[in-house]
Amino acid sequence: MGLKLSDFILDAKIYIDANIFLYSAFKHPKFGEVCINFLMRVDEKKNGYVSDITLNEVFHKLMLAEIGRTFKIKTWDAVKYIKRHPEAISKLEILWEEMEIIKNSHLNFISTEKVFPGFVEISHRFNLLATDAMIAMIMEKNNIKNIATNDSDFERVDFLKVWKP
Questions:
Q1: Which partner for 45 in 10, 79, 109, 128 could form a disulfide, CB atoms 3.0-4.6 Å apart?
Q2: How many domains is the chain built from?
Q3: Torsion angle of the four alpha carbons 114, 64, 93, 57, in this order, in degrees rounded to the nearest 10
Q4: Which long-range contacts (CB under 8 A, 24 or more apart) does 136-139 make?
Q5: Does residue 117 have a cis peptide bond before it, meaning omega lies within 30 degrees of 0?
Q6: What residues of the chain score a pLDDT lower than 70?
Q7: CA distance 11 to 48
């Protein structure tokens, strides 16, 4: 079981997983407010960390969800819709606003260089999916021990403290 995100003391580095950004962007009924408040606190303290792999996931999921909402289609049909109507991407609003907020934030953007074969070993050792293993490897390389996430798979990683909304 993870620790409560609202209890995180902002004196240490913390990696922010994609679901925290997504709960905030979509104002999730249960987790949205906690995540919004956390992101504001981390932005002020400048101790939040994120990598391209996480931001790619945020960007992709925001895009598909907004395509679904905007054009009244199922999220899983969004890719097919985009292939047929690529101009739909430029009509999105939440996606571009959220990415601009992230770009202008005080987050620390960390490198994803040279994480192979380390992430493969972490995946095997802790039974993690590829992206989660990559995140864990990036965190280990950057000496980040805290992660803000609602993904309980990270609780299996013995060198991480998991902070949940």
A1: 10
A2: 1
A3: -20
A4: 136/160, 138/15, 138/51, 138/53, 138/110, 138/111, 138/112, 139/15, 139/49
A5: yes
A6: 1-2
A7: 11
Number of helices and strands (H, E) in the chain? 7, 6
pLDDT value for 2: 63
Q: pTM of the prediction?
A: 0.92
Residue for token digits 């303290």?
A: 45
Contact 25, 98 (CB under 8 A): yes
Contacts of 68 (CB under 8 A, 6+ apart): 74, 75, 77, 78
* CATH classification at residue 34: 3.40.50.1010
Domain that holds residue 136: 3-55+95-164
